[in-house]
Design brief:
The N and C termini lie far apart (99 Å). This protein is mostly helical. It is built from one helix and no strands. The chain crosses the membrane at residues 12-31, 37-59.
Length: 68
């Protein structure tokens, strides 16, 4: 019974260690997947705004030239 208890504790710690490593791996994957997506979304929104503002500015300039 004593030996069995010891073994059970050892198995429990082994499982804990595996779970710990898995959680670290999951965190790393989360960081590697979610951060670039967020980063690209932010860059995409910024580029979209810049392009739209450039188009608006270009058309304003053109219409001012055609009016004058």
């Amino acid at each position: 019974m004593k030996l069995n208890k010891k073994r059970l504790r050892k198995d429990f710690f082994e499982l804990l260690k595996i779970f710990f490593y898995l959680s670290i791996a999951a965190l790393l994957i989360f960081v590697m997947v979610v951060f670039p997506i967020m980063f690209s979304v932010v860059i995409g929104i910024a580029l979209f705004v810049i392009i739209i503002s450039f188009i608006v500015w270009f058309f304003k300039k053109r219409y001012i030239i055609t009016e004058a």
